[in-house]
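Exercise: predict the fold of this chain.
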Amino acid sequence: MKHLAIVQHTQSEWLGAIEDHLEGRGIRFSYFRPFSAGGTLPDIMTLGDGLVLLGGGPWGAASAGHLLPTLEGEVRLARACLMMGKPVVGFGLGSQILSLAADGGAEAGPFVFEIADAVRTKPDALGGFLPARYPNVTYMRDRPRPPDYAEVLAVDAAGHPMLFQIGKNAFGFAGNPGVRPAMIEDLVMEFDDAPANSGELLPSLQAQARAIEDALVPIMTGLVQQTGWMGA
């Protein structure tokens, strides 16, 4: 069975609905919580079949005073995975870490909560399974700046990368495609720092919950194929 290492950066953000898709395919996973007492990052030598880097709430990869405490170590870990050909998937802050590991960058920006459509840039994205449009929820400080050789698979209305691919099996999502409204609610309560529009947008997120779940079905089908996680 395949086994994935999942790195959390907050108590509140986890895989969300993605867990159901992994479990349904017999893909195991373990959470690593380096922010907790005694918590560590995965060991590259025992990592397993892939690395998933989750979002970070108010933490970022570019804004002074808000840098993720384990940023350097996670960039090294992701870079080692890329060099070894292990799949890496980053959501939110995780996409910034992936971009840095692939010799791209991260742009400083405000802490935002946004719900908008992501638009596919090429029909064969994620093996042809990425929807032409899908709801994207961004709860993130700063933005990824993928390297020039990356393939941008989806963008928002302003042209910002919402999904990009590094090589054959590494993917950066600006949001968590398995997000559940309760995760954002918990993030707002977990930290004193939250986007000013959080209370206004939470009802909209509830209204989009079904559309997000529907879009996740083809996204996960394509993702597990492209990463090789469907293999025995």
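Check your answer against the key: The chain has one domain: 3-227.
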